[in-house]
Amino acid sequence: MRYVTRVVLPSLLLLAISAGSAAGQAPVYGYEIVRQYPHDTSAFTQGLVLTGSGLYESTGLYGASSLRKVDLQTGAVLKKVNVDPAYFAEGMTIFQGKIFQLTWQSQTAFVYDPATFARIGQFFYTGEGWGLTHSDQYLIMSDGTNRIRFMDPVSFQPVRSINVYDDLGAPLTNINELEYINGEIYANIWLTNWIVRIDPVSGKVLGWIDFTGLLPAGTSADVLNGIAYDESTGHLLVTGKFWPALFEVRLIGAAAVSPDGTMVPTATQIVDNVGAVWTLGANGAILRNGVQVGGGWGSKILWKNATIYVFGTDGNWWQRTGSGWINVGSTVPGGSSASPDGTTVPTATQIVDNAGAVWTIGASSAILRNGVQAGGGSGAKILWKSNAIYVLGGDTNWWQWTGSGWINVGSTVPGGSNASPDGTMVPTATQIVDNADAVWTIGANSAILRNGVQAGGGWGAKILWKNATIYVFGTDGNWWQWTGAGWINVGAITP
Fold it and tell me: How many domains does the chain have?
């Protein structure tokens, strides 16, 4: 990793990393802190490995690079060897009874005896050295680009490589510290709070882990870096450069889980609490991450009480059990499947009412109910409020659907603000409607758009609507608040 120990981004240079752009399509996981351990604040952490014999750490910087064995419980350094000051140490792994340690720009790696830390060899490579881990066969190495190389551990020659792209097709660069876990590559993305999960065969992004808020705001430290895996618990050990703590964490369900009661009557999608994406495919096939699930077919998918249900052509709802489907009857599971109260549709996205009808805006602003224009209605927005459908017409009045037609209810927004529900997050190009009716989305290159126009030069990985305020999460690990005219930094803690 490049030698930048303190990174200050210019005002709202949120310039979202590819991670932020992709986070809405690959599942985004959160974390739960299990334990916190002391960590040496002089350690510029580059590599981290946990084995049965202990915790090992590689630290960087010219003149301060080292290889260490550390007591996990106390943070005390049990064994240490300094690296020649001419080298900037980088990633490290333990494989086939040896410790391998990269250096940044010297194109040199060192090999050590794990018991004595005596140097027993070295090898050379082209390009920069950043992160290092291993599979059952190969050393796996990153170089700060979107390339990951697989190296023969004897000849140290590259065997193959993969290129990593986010879900928008952009190269995912700044891939840093690596850890190979259960057939996946976990990688820190330098300068961010993201760890990405990568398919080692295809390079496809399998998921994201958002470590925002792991280190308390105001703590004097550098960026997140360092991943180790505890096979005995299935937990991760995570720390950063100069961090005062190392955290044992448990991953929790995908942060992008759909709101309770979400209905998918078309090929839009529901994201469940383990990050799986559910859609309707050809001929009504029920797809989970693009693959048909248990021979399932249906006309609607419902996400309710952390459970997936499908409405079949037999007029019954079928519940996903994890291995198959069970018939739960003709009544809508868990009560109404309606959209959350206060939902606004200013485009062709959809609202599901409490009778299960799907409302959208069609061609020439026609108001469609299950694909058919409802009572000759047309308008610019649909609002779902207090179990009623309203439409904002070209006469600037709101019109309420009665079940058979429309009645004019005046120019005031029905039931108060039509803003998105409090706490709504936009990690992709879905949308938030604020209490001034402005529509917020994430556009190309992660530009923050307000009614289709970039707002105050803003970029970011997420938009959050909270307490009648728009916030954006930037790659500096901070949240930025929209003031109406610009952005202010409100820190790393989720508002």
Answer: 4
Q: Which of 278, 272, 315 is nearest to 293 (CA)?
A: 278
Q: What is the pLDDT of residues 302-318, one digit of tens each?
A: 888 778 999 888 888 89
Among 453, 492, 457, 486, which residue's Cα sits nearest to residue 470?
Answer: 486
Q: Could you tell me the residue range of the domain that residue 140 belongs to?
A: 27-254
Please write the tens of the pLDDT for every residue from 364-421: 889 988 878 999 899 988 988 888 999 988 888 889 999 889 999 887 778 666 677 7
In 3D, which of 129, 95, 94, 127 has the Cα closest to residue 109? 129
Assess if residue 356 is contained within a domain: yes
Q: Are 122 and 108 in contact (CB under 8 A)?
A: yes
Q: With beta carbons less than 8 A apart as the criterion, state whether 383 and 409 touch.
A: no
Instruction: Please report, for residues 54, 74, 84, 92, the alpha-carbon distance to residue 69 in angstroms, rounded to integers and kept in the order given.
Output: 7, 12, 18, 12
Are 37 and 102 members of one domain? yes
Residue 372: inside a domain, yes or no? yes
- Let me know whether 46 and 94 are in one domain: yes
Q: Is the pTM of this model over 0.70?
A: no
177 and 67 together in one domain? yes
**365 part of a folded domain:** yes
